[in-house]
Amino acid sequence: MPGTKELLSRTSKHTEQALSAADIAAYLGAVPGWELAGNRITKTYQFKNYYETMAFMNAIAYTIHAEDHHPEITLTYNKCVIQFDTHSVNGGKGGLSENDFICAAKVDAIFQHTFS
User: Fold this and answer.
1) H or E stretch at 45
2) What are the distances in angstroms from CA 89 to CA 16, 30, 36, 85, 115?
3) Is the separation of the CB atoms in 84 and 71 below 8 Å?
4) Whole-model pTM?
5) For residues 94 and 30, what is the distance between their CA atoms, to the nearest angstrom?
6) Model confidence pLDDT, tens digit, residues 39-86
7) How far is CA 31 from CA 20, 41, 51, 59, in A?
8) What is the pLDDT, as a whole number, of residue 8?
9) Which of 66, 96, 106, 114 is 20 to 30 A from residue 11's alpha carbon, by CA?
10) Radius of gyration for the chain, computed over Cα atoms and rounded to the nearest angstrom
């Protein structure tokens, strides 16, 4: 399975192929802090204030758009919860693909570079 560096070098592509449970477990090792929640991966980012939370949201917007892989985002005063899944896998029932982990790694990189 790819590590974080390899995920950062990849680009999301349309897929209908879901990852197996074993693959998901391996990919989770490349994105520390992300957790499996049903058919999604999720991570909560904490900030000092609303300004930082919004700055993070704006910082990740370009990457999310460029990857054409859009998460569910919950934004509050000092917290941003991001959940990734792939709607097109499992016959349209949804699940996880490599795209979720590519984007998770890229969102983490933005957070670490700017807010850590």
Assistant:
1) strand 40-46
2) 4, 21, 16, 9, 33
3) yes
4) 0.95
5) 22
6) 999 999 999 999 999 999 999 999 999 999 999 999 999 999 999 999
7) 17, 10, 26, 19
8) 97
9) 114
10) 14
All residues at 6 or more sequence positions from 47 whose CB lies less than 8 Å from its CB, including other chains: 53, 56, 78, 79, 80, 115
b/e string for 61-94 if b means 16 or more Cβ within 10 A? eeebeebebebeeeeeeeebebbbbbebbeeeeb
- CA 116 to chain CA mean position, Å: 17
The per-residue pLDDT for 113 is 93
Only one residue has tokens 């807010």, namely 115
